[in-house]
Amino acid sequence: MPMPGLDHEAAGLALPDLDRSSASDGNELVPGPTYRTSLAPRVLFATPEMSDFVKTGGLGEVAGALPRALRRHHDVRVLIPGYRQVVESCGDIALVAHLPGFADVPPCNLGFVETADGLGIYILLSAELYDRDGSPYGNAAGDFDDNDLRFGRLSLAAAELARGADPAWSADLLHLNDWQTALAPAYLAWRGARTPSVLTIHNLAYQGLFPHETLHRLGLPEDAFRVDGVEFYGQLSFLKAGLFYASQVTTVSETYAREITTPESGCGMDGLLRTRAAQGQLAGILNGIDESWDPRVDPHLAARFEAGDWKGKAANAEAVRQGFGLAVSRGPLFAIVSRLVHQKGIDLSLDAARTILSEGGQLVVMGQGEGHFEEALRGLAERNPGQVGVHIGFSEENARRVFAGSDFLLMPSRFEPCGLAQLYAQRFGSLPIVHRTGGLADTVEDEVTGFSFAEASANGLTQAVRRAIDAFGRKKRLNAMRQTAMSRDRGWNGAALDYCALYTRALGNSAPGRCQAA
Ligand SMILES: Nc1ncnc2c1ncn2[C@@H]1O[C@H](COP(=O)(O)OP(=O)(O)O[C@H]2O[C@H](CO)[C@@H](O)[C@H](O)[C@H]2O)[C@@H](O)[C@H]1O
User: Fold this and answer.
1) Using CA atoms, how far apart are residues 95 and 165, in angstroms rounded to an integer?
2) Atom of ligand 1 at shortest distance to CA of 424?
3) If both were cysteines, with which of 17, 49, 289, 373 could 60 make a disulfide (CB 3.0 to 4.6 Å apart)?
4) What is the whole-number distance in angstroms between the Cα of residue 337 and the centre of ligand 1?
């Protein structure tokens, strides 16, 4: 039986090699520098979203920050689809390669730009696949029905960048993120390439499931459609392919890394994940947040402040109340900043809102997502004018203002791989109230840097809300907690060192001294 990971021999699964000659569309290629600018290992960070261009949630933020933090140790480049938002914001894109089509996956061009701070970005240029209205994944009508081709194309391009698609730069290691890139390790295996790969799970619940027919659309070997491969309960799963074929699997906190090996939290993948863990090939590396999250320098705030300057924080609270149309109040201000989806326990927060309001607190909400949650929140605001303010939509500037102005952040997620909102809140002196799960368990210390509760229920959250309101009434204690939360180190350096050590291992290279703190 084939074993997951690098040791797996892709016997019998070889695909025909690419026919580069068929790909030309007459465009001029612009070769990049043919010399290596650094001897550091070359890492391709492939992602379906990146905050520089387009994001729908936490993965986009990580993709904007982590590759930059990794540059201290590696020669890192990013690969992202050329969605309309990406192409429009890039200006001049140099064309570095033509990538041939394969089965129903269309050919496309590979563009390259450098960001203002010198990070190299490969952009997959295919108007047919990516030049659309909507989010990276769909529009008002739902998910795009060719997402298998769109992200099959992305995964295939990542594998091709490890196999010389760009003559000027070839990846020594692929770092893949979530299902949208997770076929890449399988493509490598099927083509007999030994380039190591790391797959990071940002959310196991999104698995990239498609009908069996996708196998043919992508031209994948029929042999791969089995339990030890890409098959998942009769469907084809991109994520499963990555979990099986990647050299190393990571997720974004240690607790979530343990949780996903259990039947309760493993979303049906727990058996495979237990195998990877037993082989020492599953690790949890906690996300960081970037340095711009600093209330001392944030230009978006009504008043900049630091720990101890609680008048400055109060000025932000006043601005948030005004912005959301709330009455003047000396009570606690609670906030929700979130995608409005089941995972985030929005229903539990709606329930706990009754306690918040009856105890003299107020609530502001910013986010968007499932229509029924948006409606329920709007209804709550209508029934409680001046006490509840809801903004359906998302803007990072406003999110920053809400973190700075609120006293508490509600985050009763049913599961949470890492969670970023609680880290932003802590940095801005807003104490998170969280379900003790995944990354929330690893970053919120109960009664020290926030409040946590064990059971994901309305009652569990309400009890924690009561404790928070009690702390709000005892200013010395409240301020000590704020101070501690604000001073925790949440930067990316620690994670970058951990990834560096993992890459070094995956590359089979002891590279002494490579992974050293700055
Ligand atoms: N409607 C919206 N549109 C755009 N941006 C919005 C948004 N609502 C919130 N955001 C922003 O995205 C962040 C959300 O990140 P989270 O990590 O909290 O959750 P998410 O589930 O998206 O990410 C997943 O990936 C991240 C990264 O690994 C893990 O931390 C997390 O646990 C996992 O569920 C917020 O801090 C906010 O800045």
Assistant:
1) 12
2) 36
3) 49
4) 9
Rounded Cα distance between 407 and 81, Å, is 39
Q: What is the pLDDT of residues 131-165, one digit of tens each?
A: 999 999 999 999 999 999 999 999 999 999 999 99
Give, using CA atoms, the residue closest to atom 36 of ligand 1.
421
Statement: residue 15 has pLDDT above 70: no
Centre of ligand 1 from the C-alpha of residue 259, in Å: 19
Tokens for 39?
């001897």
The answer, yes or no, to whether residue 19 has pLDDT greater than 70, is no
The encoded tokens of residue 388 equal 């509840």
Listed in order, strand segments (DSSP E) in 238-317 are 248-251, 282-284
Find the 432 Cα to ligand 1 centroid distance in Å: 15
> Under a CB-based contact definition with an 8 Å cutoff, are residues 115 and 148 in contact?
no
By the 8 A CB rule, do 122 and 77 touch?
yes
CA atoms of 493 and 68, how far apart (whole Å): 10
Measured from the CA of 417, which atom of ligand 1 is nearest?
32
Contact 468, 431 (CB under 8 A): yes
The answer on 411 and 267 residing in a single domain is no
Residue 396 CA: nearest ligand 1 atom is 38
What CATH number corresponds to the domain at position 99? 3.40.50.2000
Ligand 1 atom closest to residue 62's alpha carbon, by position in its atom list = 27
200 and 58, same structural domain?
Answer: yes
- What is the Å distance from ligand 1's center to 416 Cα? 10
Which pLDDT belongs to residue 106?
A: 97
Looking at the DSSP bridge assignments, the partners of residue 338 are 367
158 and 228 inside one domain: yes
Side by side, which strands form the sheet with 235-237?
Answer: 209-210, 235-237, 231-232
Q: Is there a domain that residue 2 lies in?
A: no
How much is the ipTM here? 0.94
Residue 55 assigned to a binding site: yes
Residues in contact with ligand 1 by the CB-under-6-Å rule are 55-59, 61-62, 202-203, 252, 287, 337-339, 367-368, 394, 396, 399, 416-421, 424, 439
How far apart CA 82 and CA 92 sit, in angstroms, is 13
Number of Cβ atoms within 10 Å of the Cβ of 6 = 19
Domain that holds residue 401: 310-487
Q: How far apart are CA 37 and CA 168, in angstroms?
A: 10
Q: For residue range 269-324, what is the model confidence (pLDDT) as tens digits?
A: 999 999 999 999 999 999 999 999 999 999 999 999 999 999 999 999 999 999 99
**pTM (whole model) above 0.90:** yes
Whether 281 and 430 map to the same domain: the answer is no
